[in-house]
Amino acid sequence: MAPDVFVAICEDSVELGEWLLEFTVRESLAFASRAREAGLDIDVAVNVHAKAFDDLALPEWIEAIAAESGTPTNKVTLEITGRSVAQNAVRMLDVATRLRLKGFNLAIDDFGTGHSGLSQLRRLPFNQLKIDRQFVHGSADSTSSRSVVEASIALARNLQMTSVAEGVQRRGDWDLLQSLGCEEMQGFFTARPMTEDGLSAWSAQWNLHAGSNRRLVSQ
């Protein structure tokens, strides 16, 4: 079952949404702890639906789980999806600001789609901008897609945010993004989904070819 199917179902249910968030955060940070013990210095990115930001206890809750796993907060990125909207905009700003003050990274996911637009970017203290795959894939061969990608990277740079490209599957798009100064990329060109056991072997091979300065982000 594709994530677009079950994630949407979970976000439409308060009970399922809370379960998915807790499961994802706890499992991701536990994995980060095991990876660190194995000698891998990785960052962890977790998708969080906007409705979760209606909960004022969210910052302390995630901070406690990070401390329990021994994961520094600056190694954790919370990606706010554009599929849902928080019920209380003021409360969402409060929660997002306290998360940033605690050192967590905040990313606006799928920028330019759904509810992830300039108004949200202006209101909330994001420090990462994720360019949606529909603009990234094939951007090396499409003038219009390249223009959107280039403008998004420039916007992130001007706002002193980290630019992240989603859905990089081809060498041509990878090379274009590098030439435009995109700071982070994710997609099948880098690696397909893998088990935890396969990560060590993959990272060793990746660092051998790409250089140890490439930052690993687990999602």
Task: Please describe what this structure looks like.
The protein folds into two domains: 126 residues, EAL domain (TIM Barrel, Alpha-Beta Barrel); 56 residues, no CATH class. Helices cover 50% and strands 15% of the residues. A seven-stranded parallel sheet has the order 6-5-4-3-2-1-7. Helix 3 links the parallel strand 1 and strand 2. The longest helix has 24 residues.
What is the strand and helix layout of this fold?
Elements: H1 3-11, H2 14-37, E1 42-48, H3 58-69, E2 76-80, H4 89-101, E3 105-111, H5 118-123, E4 128-131, H6 133-136, H7 143-158, E5 162-165, H8 171-180, E6 184-185, H9 196-210, E7 216-218
Parallel strand pairs: 1-2, 1-7, 2-3, 3-4, 4-5, 5-6
Helix pairs in contact: 1-2, 2-3, 3-4
Shape: globular
Mean pLDDT: 86
Q: Into which percent range does the helicity of residues fall?
A: 40-55%
Strands, total number: 7
Number of domains: 2
The helix/strand class is alpha/beta
Provide the CATH superfamily of the largest domain.
EAL domain
Residue runs with pLDDT of under 50 for 5 or more positions: none
What does the radius of gyration come to?
17 Å
CATH class of the largest domain, named: Alpha Beta
Could you give the order of strands across the largest sheet? 6-5-4-3-2-1-7
N/C terminus separation:
17 Å
Largest sheet: 7 strands, parallel
